[in-house]
Specification:
Elements (H helix, E strand, L loop, with lengths): L1 H12 L1 H19 L8 E10 L4 E8 L8 H8 L10 H11 L10 E5 L5 E5 L4 E4 L2 E4 L11 H20 L20 E6 L5 H9 L4 E6 H9 L6 E4 L11 H10 L4 E4 L1 H9 L4 E17 L11 E12 L8 E7 L4 E6 L4 E4 L10 H21 L1
Parallel strand pairs: 7-8, 7-9, 9-10, 10-15
Antiparallel strand pairs: 1-2, 3-4, 5-6, 11-12, 11-13, 13-14, 14-15
């Protein structure tokens, strides 16, 4: 027990493990937001300890109410594959897995469970599992790699995860274990186009916006531009986060269309970066990527952050940032981190604003920070056009 308590202390104090779990939880919330009633997805347990025969885990418990137009199979498919075995953003991570892994995963990371006659389903991931065939035992294990991972520690973790099954085959003895949303109706009657840049948080973001009463349509970037050219006229466009750089998703082309049509724009993460580049700014690369990490932000000005605390904590998932040396004169930087990384911007003349952080992340307090910012984007930007 004393050794376990020390391992638990180390685990809870590990920023890497906290970032890893946070990423998985934010993506899981996103998976649920695709099929759940808006506002029903919530974290009911945060960084709770679970003990296994050889391993100690911290886990988050997330629940959501399945929307009436979906069934158990929809819920299952929305989570496949689980972020814990793919990484994020899922689409790009799965592409990387397919390109880099030398053997097919087959059963590993799949699911086993049951579907009952009343339409319910109960499944679990096939992890810590052994496949016996023709006298051969196949055991697979993995670990989550982040920028600040220790390669030796990650490999040791995979061996530890497989150790219980190896011991079962060899007959060796077992050693000690080691290591919700409330909103005003700001968006009522408004139609929002959320442009998806192949991101793993877009459904959570859409769910947050829907709780304002807005009608949200989510479209991939290329299809969104096609619909805009055909006459789609939303009240506000939200440029989602995403991997890569703005040019990977032709954000400049998107902004050309939106400015021509006088559609208000609110960007998140990659969206901010695309706006900065569009108006002539440059992007730099952080010395240390900020993925699944919280930061304290200082709000200095701007209508978007009016009424917010002067200092608040936000969740960050980015490596690129807006360079101050080439920051466009037509934009205002309205918030920054303690090391002066720009966290929020507003256009001085057009209804365009953005934040570098993720208002939908569990690290950005939903009721105190996340939702008020999204509500402000709806009211301030849309009212600017109406005026």
């Amino acid at each position: 027990p004393l050794e376990d308590s020390e391992r638990i202390r180390e685990l809870l104090n590990s920023k890497k493990d906290e970032s890893e779990l946070t990423m998985c939880t934010d993506v899981d919330r996103n998976d649920k937001s695709r099929v759940c009633v808006p506002g029903s997805v919530r974290v009911i347990g945060r960084r709770q300890i679970e003990m296994y025969s050889r391993l100690i885990h911290t886990v988050d418990h997330v629940e959501g109410e399945l929307a009436p137009e979906f069934d158990a199979l929809d819920g299952f498919l929305s989570h496949a594959w689980a972020v814990t075995v793919t990484g994020a953003p899922k689409l790009w991570a799965i592409r990387f897995v397919e390109e880099q892994e030398r053997s097919a995963r087959r059963w590993y990371g799949g699911a086993i469970g049951r579907v009952t006659f009343d339409g319910n389903m109960n499944t679990g991931l096939t992890l810590r599992t052994m496949r016996m065939k023709d006298g051969i035992a196949e055991i697979r294990a993995g670990a989550t790699l982040l920028y600040d991972s220790d390669p030796d520690a990650e490999e040791a973790e995979t061996r530890l995860k497989a150790a219980a099954l190896v011991a079962a085959i060899r007959g060796t003895s077992r050693p000690a274990a080691s290591t919700g949303l409330a909103s005003s109706r700001t968006g009522s009657g408004r139609k929002i186009l959320l442009i998806d840049h192949e991101d793993s948080f877009v459904h959570t973001l859409a769910g947050y916006i829907r709780t304002t009463g807005a009608e949200v349509t989510t479209l991939r970037h290329d299809f969104a531009r096609e619909q805009l050219r055909k006459g789609l006229r939303p009240d506000l466009v939200v440029l989602s986060p995403g991997p890569g750089r703005p040019e990977d998703f032709a954000i400049a082309d998107t902004l050309d269309l939106l400015i021509e049509k006088q559609v208000p724009v609110f960007g998140v993460c990659l969206g901010l970066q695309g706006i900065v580049e569009y108006f002539g700014g440059s992007l730099g690369v952080l010395d240390v990527p900020m993925h699944g990490k919280p930061s304290v932000v200082h709000a200095s000005s701007g209508r978007l952050l009016q009424g917010m605390p002067e200092r608040f904590t936000v969740g960050r998932y980015h490596s690129l940032f807006a360079e101050r040396s080439s920051f466009p004169a037509v934009l205002s930087a309205t918030a920054e981190t303690e090391d002066r990384v720009i966290m929020a911007i507003e256009h001085k003349n057009l209804p365009i604003a953005a934040v570098q952080f993720h208002p939908e992340s569990v690290m950005t307090s939903p009721g105190e920070v996340g939702m008020p910012i999204l509500e402000a984007a709806l009211s301030v930007l849309c009212e600017t056009v109406a005026a």
